[in-house]
Input
Amino acid sequence: MRWAGLGWAGLGMDPTQALKPTLILYDADIPKQEALIVDLGQEPKLAIVRSLRPAQLPLEVLEYLSPRRNLNYHIEPNHKPA
Output
């Protein structure tokens, strides 16, 4: 996805806020280890407009964001069993 002229964004998701993921922003001028991170849960005015498959990304962006092939979920109960 394009981010207001900055570039592409990768994402991580909290299952409790599936519509408000955390985005890792691609910017060719910023090293991967210092990538900008935006939590949409903390930015109510921002939203995802569309998404892209990894195959639709330029190779440079794909390597920078390093999207995972499989998405895994870990669910914990809010309470501990007695």
Summary: Residues 59-65 form the longest helix (7 residues).
